[in-house]
Automatic annotation (TrEMBL):
InterPro entries xrefs: CAND6-7_N, GOST_TM, GPR107/GPR108-like
Gene source species: Mantoniella antarctica
Protein name: Protein GPR107
Signal peptide start-end: 1-25
GO cellular component, one term: Golgi apparatus
Topological type in the membrane: Multi-pass membrane protein
Transmembrane in keyword set: yes
Length: 448
């Protein structure tokens, strides 16, 4: 392939490695059909410990050169592993027109020529390699096509693993080993928070009629879906560790994670609009926000499933990755608008006679909630990513721990701020005031 094309493909693959992070480390199966890409990312980063192993099985190989051209040089079609630190060297090397398989900064595993020389009777080529102690680190597996205008086909099964103390295979990356226990601890933490929340609702219902609003039940459903999500993650990573495949737990995880995402954005939007607290309805402008956020969340969930299940080797995988990140950013920005509108409305109403103190209290609470939502989005979307990008490959679990801790804190503080208690300034509204403010906010929404 031309040097410029090689460079573009390599940069795209390395960017995917940086953005998506480590794979789930399950046994990978990919099917490549008449593909002309110069660089194909087969397996995302995997952290090898000493004596970790690489097992590859390939069958159904095919090389297709243009009609009338000489046969392709199969020594220029092959597989290699490399670290993220080699990125700069590879860019410079490819810009000079070299073949990535000849670069000293990559570890070439084998080529199509090697497969021809060692093909088994059933047409399957098998490759096994053990990581030496001094070579332990995080590697990604690539396929390189250095032959211009040449198409390739093959079916590949990749098994990357470390060793458990018992000597059995551990299919989790070095930085993912604590994840089964981490998510199990998170499950019990969220269950404790959920129990405390439902006890709070029960007590509020018992002591003050009408103190529990519909939004409080939405918040309870959100914590239930979050509990089920982290429980499925714990089970999924445990099965991947022992068997190399989640065996159905990933399907449950996708469902509960999707519902959790939809309810999270819905709850934040509804709290931001004051629905159920301040007024029992949404104006047209607020309904439009929900109509934008919820479908985007559905599409983002579909993109997530394709990213996780399809693997980076399929064409279009990078496009779905970009769609996911774009939709996630749009949703995060969209949920801030209702909070800003409510702050603006309360600031204007704070000077009204008879309601100044009450509106000022609500204004302060809304501002605190706005700052908290912004901080949560910034931390989980940027800080966690930076932590994952800069941490040692054996400490990548820290980014998951930080994300879950931030989420738990966000849930707990939000629940505390808007809990159904008598002295909550957010709930200090009599019926006349609620009707008056509801009409004002409806008029404001229609005037925009």
């Amino acid at each position: 392939a031309p040097p410029a094309a090689m460079t573009r493909y390599l940069l795209a693959a390395l960017l995917a490695v940086a953005l998506v992070g480590p794979s789930a480390a399950k046994i990978t199966q990919e099917e490549i059909k008449k593909d002309d890409r110069a660089i194909i990312l087969i397996v995302r980063p995997f952290g090898f410990e000493a004596d970790g192993s690489i097992n590859i099985a390939i069958k159904g190989r095919g090389v297709y050169a243009p009609e009338g051209s000489p046969p392709a040089d199969k020594s220029k079609l092959g597989f290699f592993i490399t670290t993220s630190e080699a990125e700069t060297q590879l860019e410079e090397y490819l810009s000079d027109g070299g073949c990535v398989l000849d670069n000293i900064s990559v570890d070439k595993l084998f080529t199509f020529q090697d497969m021809d020389n060692n093909l088994k009777d059933n047409g399957t080529y098998r490759y096994t390699n053990t990581i030496a102690p001094e070579k332990a680190g995080e590697y990604s597996l690539f396929f390189a096509n250095c032959e211009p205008n040449t198409l390739v086909s093959f079916d590949i099964t990749v098994e990357l693993s470390n060793k458990l103390p018992s000597g059995e295979k551990d299919y989790l990356s070095a930085g993912e080993k604590p994840l089964p226990m981490l998510y199990l601890v998170a499950f019990f933490a969220y269950v404790s928070a959920g129990v405390a929340w439902f006890v709070c609702l029960w007590r509020a219902n018992s002591t003050e009629e009408g103190g529990v609003r519909r939004i409080h039940h939405f918040m309870g459903v959100l914590i239930v879906f979050k509990c089920l999500t982290v429980l499925c993650q714990s089970g999924m990573y445990h099965l991947i560790r022992t068997r190399g495949d989640p065996e159905g737990w990933n399907i449950a995880y996708y469902f509960f994670s999707s519902m959790r995402g939809i309810f999270l954005f819905t709850v934040v939007v509804l709290i931001g609009t004051g629905w159920s607290f301040v007024k029992p309805f949404l104006n047209d402008r607020e309904k439009k926000v929900l109509m934008v956020v919820l479908p985007l969340q559905v599409f983002a969930n579909i993109a997530t499933i394709i990213l996780d299940e399809g693997g980076p080797a399929i064409k279009g995988w990078f496009t779905w990755r970009d769609i996911f990140h774009l939709l996630d950013i749009i949703c995060c920005c969209a949920i801030l608008f209702p909070i800003v509108w409510s702050i603006k409305h309360l600031r204007e109403a704070a000077g009204t006679d008879g309601k100044k103190l009450r509106n000022m209290n609500k204004l302060i609470l809304f501002r605190q909630f706005y700052v908290m939502v912004v901080a949560y989005i910034y931390f989980t979307r940027i800080v966690v990513y930076l932590l994952k990008s800069t941490a040692l490959y054996t400490m990548l679990w820290l980014s998951d721990a930080a994300s879950e801790l931030a989420t738990l804190c966000f849930y707990v503080v939000t629940g505390w701020m808007f809990r159904p208690v008598v002295d909550n300034p957010y709930l200090h509204l009599n019926e006349d005031e609620m009707d008056e403010e509801g009409v004002e906010m409806v008029d404001e929404g229609r005037s925009v």
